[in-house]
Amino acid sequence: MNKSILLGLPRRLERRLFNRAAVALQSNPPSVLERAQARIRHLDAATNSPSPQLKDTFNRQHNYLRISLTERCNLRCFYCMPEEGIELSPDGKLLTNQEILRLATLFVKSGVTKIRLTGGEPTIRKGILDIVGDLNGLRQYGLQSIGMTSNGLSLHRRLPQLVESGLTHLNLSLDTLDPFKFELITRRRGHEAVLKTLDVALKLPLASIKVNVVVIKNLNDHEVLDFVEMTKNMPISVRFIEFMPFTGNKWDKKKMVESSDLLERIRSRHPNVQRAPDELNDTARSWTVPGHTGSFGFISSMSDHFCATCNRLRLTADGQIKVCLFDAKEISLRDKIREGMTDEELLRTIGLAVNGKKEKHAGMEDIDVVTNRPMILIGGIRTKSNTFSTHSLSTDLHRRPSPFYLPHTQGRLHYRLYSTSRLTHLDEHGRASMVDVSDKAPSRRSATASGIIQIPKLAYELITSSYPVEEAPIIDRQVLDDTQSKALAKARKKGDALTIAQLAGIMGAKQTSNLIPLCHPLPLTKVDVLLQPEATSLSPRVYSIRCTATTTCEGKTGVEMEALTAVSVSLLTVWDMLKAVAGKDMEIGSITVTRKSGGKSGDFDRMPSSDALR
């Protein structure tokens, strides 16, 4: 019988066929019969009968292994990554592909039937297709499913290949259906890409597609009904996860919404929801709405734990085995492998870790005071030699700054997440909204803003030679090279730079409501723009042009934005006028409101301070 025909068949059927082949081959040469019998013995040895090393003292047999492939992620979800960032392990400290396969093989032969790949973001790992393909080869030892948990940001391009390589289950992390709020939570753009991944996944032969939603009070809890509505026509399972404490995620019990509360909200819309059968050892309690294609469920780690049926073990990206998500104790299987341990010795080491697993929540009564890795480092150790912080942002974010992106502070980038209840331009759902000023009485309002643009000496002399300032220097044409002379002539052809910039600032102030989406159009009664060249007296001298703009109106809202727009447009116009001679050497900064009067918030004058550019 052709051996290749049997590959890929269920083990029982394969063995039955080999038994029949052995009987049929009684009259054949002994070598053929011996090969058939050897194959039968091999199949018997390959059976992944549960090992006692994977059973803990509470009689829980562990047949589910989660493998973190990387500590890196292309999102920065605040509940997963600390605000100050994380420190990555050097590449040499991470498990190699061969080490991952060796440990996975050992676990599968010991009774693990389900493997899930996590991170960080697992799709960032180089060789992910090879890893999935190699794991797929473990089906001969009893592995039944290969899953992946992903943020879906770039997965849509590779998902078909991953499924072809053996991926069977997919969990997508998607905490909001609002693109604006997605950026608030993840500190990145990409909402549309995640939805595209979901669309691609629905067209592939995956055994299961789940959408994970971490629910946080007053942030996305009002979207629960919208997520349930997704299950009407999509064969997906939406799982609402209670906000859990991890180092650096600023967990607060007040931000947690218990699953029971969410269920009551859903029942108010769908009173006929029904309990759905749960998978064995499943972490989620599942429900369905009659007539809906999909289902929804709750992972209530905080309010209603499922520790009694826990069957999960975790292997971090740097090779540590974790027997509980909340347990800070770890054993390095990576080090044991590199010390030359045999598989039998490794299995005994794993058994020691499993034997130490507590009955629930790592033996702690109050897991909200847990000291553990950040969630993203359930995979990873910290090392000062390879610091990863939010300073290493993608170039895309630098090109398109987020409204939640704040300047450098002591070498790191810091973020602030604003409550939607405090931003007047957001409604109760977190969506953009123009403030209603209908009930306000008009009053006289005024605002002054200022800013500066640093310029090189040549540009300063060009400006001051045609602009009346005290002790204006005269450009010595004999010290200019040909390139500078041509640039100077080109700049002069544009005309009086400061006058044009002044007019541009006035026009910009009048166009503010067309430039800033939620600004009210105001009947400005006066716009005054002044541009003044300046040079410091200290050496080395710093040359700049300061712009000051004052706007006034009789209106129902303030005119600060008009003053700021006037300054910004004026300085940008100066840049445009001088770029022929100073394009690489100019810098705009220190744009701020210096004075304001009128309105409910009262008057203020900003205390003078040194300019940031000086």
TrEMBL record:
Record-linked SUPFAM superfamilies: Molybdenum cofactor biosynthesis protein C, MoaC (SSF55040), Radical SAM enzymes (SSF102114)
Alphabetical keyword list: 4Fe-4S, GTP-binding, Iron, Iron-sulfur, Lyase, Metal-binding, Molybdenum cofactor biosynthesis, Nucleotide-binding, S-adenosyl-L-methionine
MF terms (GO), sorted A to Z: 4 iron, 4 sulfur cluster binding; cyclic pyranopterin monophosphate synthase activity; GTP 3',8'-cyclase activity; GTP binding; metal ion binding
Pathway: Cofactor biosynthesis; molybdopterin biosynthesis
GO terms of biological process kind: Mo-molybdopterin cofactor biosynthetic process
Domain Radical SAM core: 57-285
Pfam family, one: Mob_synth_C
Reactions mediated catalytically: GTP + AH2 + S-adenosyl-L-methionine = (8S)-3',8-cyclo-7,8-dihydroguanosine 5'-triphosphate + 5'-deoxyadenosine + L-methionine + A + H(+); (8S)-3',8-cyclo-7,8-dihydroguanosine 5'-triphosphate = cyclic pyranopterin phosphate + diphosphate
Cofactor(s) this protein cannot do without: [4Fe-4S] cluster
Similarity comment: In the N-terminal section; belongs to the radical SAM superfamily. MoaA family. In the C-terminal section; belongs to the MoaC family.
UniProt protein name: Radical SAM core domain-containing protein
Organism: Crepidotus variabilis
